[in-house]
Each structure stands twice: as C-alpha cells, then as structure tokens.
C-alpha cells in the first residue's frame, strides 16, 4: 500500500506533545515530504529526570534531515502564524496540509465564577488561532496550482473536541470554543470547496496525553468517562495515535471528496449529542 501522504508538505501546530506529536510522527511515517512542527517549545519533559527527544528530531533521525523542522510559534500572534506558513513555503516550495492542533483544556470552573481572562484566553487559543492558521494556509493554497497527482489544492484539519458536540459540566468556555471551531470548519468548507480546498475537523474524546494525564488520575473523572463512553472501559486507555490515524486519512487522497465534516473519534461519547 502506498504511503498515504506521499510528497505532501505539512504543518502541525502544538506538535511537541500529545495529539500533535502523534499526528506529526504519523504524517512523516506515511510519506510526507516535509513536516514543520510548530509549538512554543520543541519538546517536553514528563519529569525533571526525563528528557524526551523533540518531535522533529525523531522524524529527522528516522527519515532524514530534510524531512522535518521546528519553528517556535505562538499561534495567537498573527505575525507568527503568517511567518510559519511563509517558512514552510520557502523551505519546501508549497503547503499541502495544515493541522491546527494547538489548544488549551477546560479551566474546570463554573460559569458564574469564570473570569473574563479565562473565557477570552480559551477562545484565543482554541478558536482564534484556528482562524489564523486557516487564513494564512488558504492564502497560500489559492496561489498554488493543483498538482496532477492530488485531488485537492490544500487540506485543513482542525482539531476540535467531542465536547464541541456534546457538552460537559464545568467546561462552558472550552465547549463553546470547540463548537465554534466546528462551525468555522463547516463554513470554511463551504466557502472554499470550489477551489478544491478541503476543511474538516476531528473531534477527539479524552485520550491519554501529557495534558490529560492529571485529570485521568482522578477517580471521579475515571468514573465519569466509564459512564458516558460506550467503548470498552471508558476509552481512557486510548492514546493520541487514535486521533493521528484519522488525521492521516483526512490528509490523504483517499479522503479527497470529504469536506465540512466534524469527525468524532471518541469511543461513542458523542452518540447521544
């Protein structure tokens, strides 16, 4: 079977850990010509005694120095997002796939106790940054000719959340910000489909990542997920690779006619949304 994203040039934001890291690694494994790993820092340290190789380092060690790079980016700063897209085009000549993954989790605060900074901060990272990534990716896509081997001029994959489909308590800002990402995704698909620019969202359930690990160590949280997720033991044993598989498919030509979709990858959590 041919590599799913062979010869494609990709950007993944929030690529240093968790879902973003898994997506970047899988895109490289599936043949991406180049993966720009964008984040606030190149790697993460699970503890003071552990030093984990950066995502782009793992890719270059496995596939070659020309297959990946890192750029420090704050996705809430417009000029930095613009520069991120410009760098990958300067390096690789084009952009084929952008995965807007960088985000923040729920503040776990009742609405009446939430500060304006909590609310606006959640939307700034989860929603506005997704808009900025789409904006500058689309500008580049529209300048590109449609390659004969690809059915789409460009591919946008927004990492939303199952909480954007089915609300949960103490997460009003997070749920609303991710629902906005889903709506933005569908509007973008409508607006740019005629240009063969594809836009889809993935709506992950809770998978085990550095961001979710503290929450999943809580017995009450574990009981909640076991109650609301039909699959297996609440799905809490699932890792970020589950989301990466969906992203690699959406980035591939196999999904060349799929656009405007909010794809739940959540063990059935959103079935009753």
TrEMBL record:
The keyword NADP applies. Keywords: NADP. GO terms for molecular function: oxidoreductase activity, acting on the CH-OH group of donors, NAD or NADP as acceptor. It holds the Pfam family adh_short_C2. Belongs to the short-chain dehydrogenases/reductases (SDR) family. PANTHER family: SHORT-CHAIN DEHYDROGENASE_REDUCTASE, SHORT-CHAIN DEHYDROGENASES/REDUCTASES FAMILY MEMBER. This is 2-(R)-hydroxypropyl-CoM dehydrogenase. It comes from Chaetomium strumarium.
């Amino acid at each position: 079977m041919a590599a799913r994203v062979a010869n494609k040039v990709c950007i993944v934001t929030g690529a240093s850990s968790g879902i973003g890291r898994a997506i970047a690694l899988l895109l490289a494994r599936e043949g991406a010509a180049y993966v720009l790993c964008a984040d606030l820092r190149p790697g993460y340290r699970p503890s003071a005694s552990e030093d984990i190789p950066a995502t782009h380092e793992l890719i270059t060690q496995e596939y070659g120095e020309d297959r990946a790079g890192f750029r420090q980016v704050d996705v809430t700063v417009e000029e930095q997002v613009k520069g991120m897209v410009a760098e990958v085009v300067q390096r690789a000549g084009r952009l084929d796939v952008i995965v807007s993954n960088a985000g923040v989790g729920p503040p776990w605060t009742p609405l009446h106790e939430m500060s304006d900074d909590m609310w606006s901060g959640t939307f700034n990272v989860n929603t506005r940054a997704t808009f900025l990534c789409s904006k500058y990716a689309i500008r580049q896509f529209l300048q590109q000719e449609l390659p004969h081997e690809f059915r789409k001029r460009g591919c946008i994959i927004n990492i939303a959340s199952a909480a954007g489909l089915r609300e949960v308590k103490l997460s009003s800002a997070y749920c609303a910000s991710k629902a906005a990402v889903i709506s933005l995704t569908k509007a973008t698909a409508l607006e740019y489909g005629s240009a063969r620019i594809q836009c889809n969202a993935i709506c992950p359930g809770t998978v085990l990542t550095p961001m979710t690990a503290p929450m999943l160590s809580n017995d009450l949280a574990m009981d909640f997920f076991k109650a609301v997720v039909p699959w297996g033991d609440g799905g809490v044993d699932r890792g970020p690779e589950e989301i990466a598989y969906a992203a690699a498919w959406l980035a591939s030509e196999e999904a060349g006619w799929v656009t405007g979709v909010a794809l739940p990858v959540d063990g059935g959590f959103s079935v009753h949304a």
